[in-house]
Amino acid sequence: MELATTTLTWYTARAGGLLAFTLVSASVVLGLALAGRARSPRWPAFALEDVHRFLGILAGAFIAIHGLALLVDGFFNFTLSSLLVPGTAPARVVPVAFGVVAAELLAALAVTNHYRKQIPHWMWRRLHYLNFAVWGLALVHGITAGSDSHLYWVAGLYAASGGAVLGLLAWRLMRRRAFAPWPRRLWPAAGGVFAAELIVALTLGPLGLHAIG
After folding, report:
1. What are the residue boundaries of the structural domains of the chain, listed by start?
2. Backbone conformation region of residue 79, classed left if phi is above 0, alpha if psi is from -120 to 50, else beta
C-alpha cells in the first residue's frame, strides 16, 4: 500500500510539473501573439486576453499540485520550507531552485495582475515581462530536474515550446520593420527552428537528467 501511494504521488508530481510548464508556455505564446496584434475573427481581443489570464491561473494550480505531490511523496523527503526557499531542497538543489523561483515569480505576477488597475500601466507592463523569466526558469528546471527528460516526447515538448516562444518573439520584433528586406522576415522561423534544435540537444545531452526513468 505504501509503495502504491508513493508511486501515485510520484506520477502526480511529474504530470503536474509537465502540465504546469505546458500551460505557462501556452500563456507566454498567447501573450506574444496578442502583443503582436494577432487577432482571430471568431475570438474578440478581450476573450483572448481572458484565456491568457486563465492559462496563468491554471498553471499556478498545477504548480501547487506538483509541489503538494512532492511534499506527500516520501522518496526525496521534501519539506514545506524546501519547496518555498530556493537552495534548500534535499536533492537536485540548483535545478529545484530554478523551479521554486519560477513559481514564486508567477505568484508575484498574479498579484500584480490582480491590482493592475491600481498600479501605473508602465510599471505593470515592465513587470509583465518577467513572464519570460518564469518560462525560462521553468524550462531549465524541467530539463535539469525532471526525471522524464530522456523521453523523446518530453524533449519534443520542450523543443516545441522553445521554438514557439523564440520564433514569436523574433516575429514581434521584426513586425515593427514591415518593409525590411525579405531575408530578414525569415528570422522568426529560423530562430524558432534553432531554439528547438538547441533545446533537444541540451535535453537529451548534457543538461537532461537520465539516471531515473
Report:
1. 2-204
2. beta
